[in-house]
Specification:
Elements (H helix, E strand, L loop, with lengths): L1 H27 L7 H34 L4 H4 L2 H24 L11 H4 L2 H40 L17
Helix pairs in contact: 1-2, 2-4, 2-6
GO molecular function: G protein-coupled receptor activity
Subcellular location: Cell membrane
Family: Belongs to the G-protein coupled receptor 1 family.
């Protein structure tokens, strides 16, 4: 299942790379920024690709969490249907959040094609920033839980393994999770 998440993240990152020439064209041709569709598309694509990437990172963190915290139940929880539902769910969340500027924008003739002028501040601060902040907090908490579980597992292994007293114990591999 993890390969599906990594492939989905790779596709999202590939879309970011494809977007860069489109964004650079705005600096080469000023008339391109004067059309409503191309101006709005300038912000829809990066919002989609960034949101999609963050959703994929959250699904990867969730997959790792289940694999480490519930290793014996991983195959029961993370089926192909669940994996595809997570991938599709992240895609739909990114699509919904990124296409909102099509219907909710401050466009009028002569407006500069800049994010702070085109997008309502409520959309930018309360939807995008709160979503990115929420994703960071969730990922931090998930990885702290994963680290704590790996640390406890290493301690249990150390306690049950009988080594001679003069052999140093190297736990570096258990902390590479």
């Amino acid at each position: 299942m993890a390969n599906q998440f990594i492939n989905s993240l790779a596709i999202s990152d590939f879309l970011v790379g494809l977007y860069i020439p489109y964004h650079m064209y705005f600096y080469m041709d000023k008339s391109f920024a004067e059309m409503q569709f191309t101006c709005i598309l300038r912000f829809i694509v990066p919002i989609f690709t960034c949101t999609h990437s963050i959703c994929k990172l959250l699904t990867i963190a969730t997959d790792r969490y289940i694999a480490i915290v519930y290793p014996l139940h991983y195959n029961r929880y993370m089926t192909k249907k669940v994996a595809w539902a997570l991938i599709l769910g992240g895609f739909l969340i990114a699509l919904i959040l990124s296409t909102m500027p099509i219907y909710w924008n401050n466009w009028y003739g002569g407006i500069p094609c800049e994010m702070e002028a085109l997008l309502p501040s409520i959309y930018f601060y309360f939807m995008l920033m709160s979503m990115f902040g929420f994703a960071c907090i969730v990922m931090f908490l998930v990885y702290v839980k994963i680290w704590m579980e790996a640390y406890r597992h290493a301690r249990r292994i150390r306690r049950t393994t009988r080594l001679p007293q003069n052999v140093p114990i190297n736990d570096n591999r258990s902390l590479q999770t």
